[in-house]
Amino acid sequence: MEIVLAQAGIESGQIYRSWEGGFGAVLSGAQVDVLRRTPRVDLVEQDTEGRPAPYWRTSGDRIDGSYLVAVAPGADPAVVAARLGIASASIWHALLGFGAEMTDVQLDRLRRDPDVTYVEEDAHIYLAD
């Protein structure tokens, strides 16, 4: 992604949300044009206020009602969880995120929080013999 950002002249201060394979940013018309012509870019679309953070489904053995949440740089994962009334099971300050069990209503509110960059379903991971 760094190459794409450099090609379009996008600086880190313009980016307000990022996730694996994508980002949200305040861009000029010229930067949007460059992105649309870049072969490595699959989609360029206008963001809207209140647009929910990306939600990734697992292809593995999903843990019902359990999610992994990434927060924006500068946001405190514990504060984000508490602000939304989510009792977090694990806080990862170094990874900028947390894991928690939550209801569908909490999940929807969480995805609309501007400090949340993405939400991913939690899953069991098994080691092969």
Automatic annotation (TrEMBL):
<protein>
    <submittedName>
        <fullName>Protease inhibitor I9 family protein</fullName>
    </submittedName>
</protein>
<dbReference type="GO" id="GO:0030414">
    <property type="term" value="F:peptidase inhibitor activity"/>
</dbReference>
<dbReference type="InterPro" id="IPR010259">
    <property type="entry name" value="S8pro/Inhibitor_I9"/>
</dbReference>
<dbReference type="Pfam" id="PF05922">
    <property type="entry name" value="Inhibitor_I9"/>
</dbReference>
<feature type="domain" description="Inhibitor I9">
    <location>
        <begin position="93"/>
        <end position="127"/>
    </location>
</feature>
<dbReference type="InterPro" id="IPR037045">
    <property type="entry name" value="S8pro/Inhibitor_I9_sf"/>
</dbReference>
<keyword id="KW-0646">Protease inhibitor</keyword>
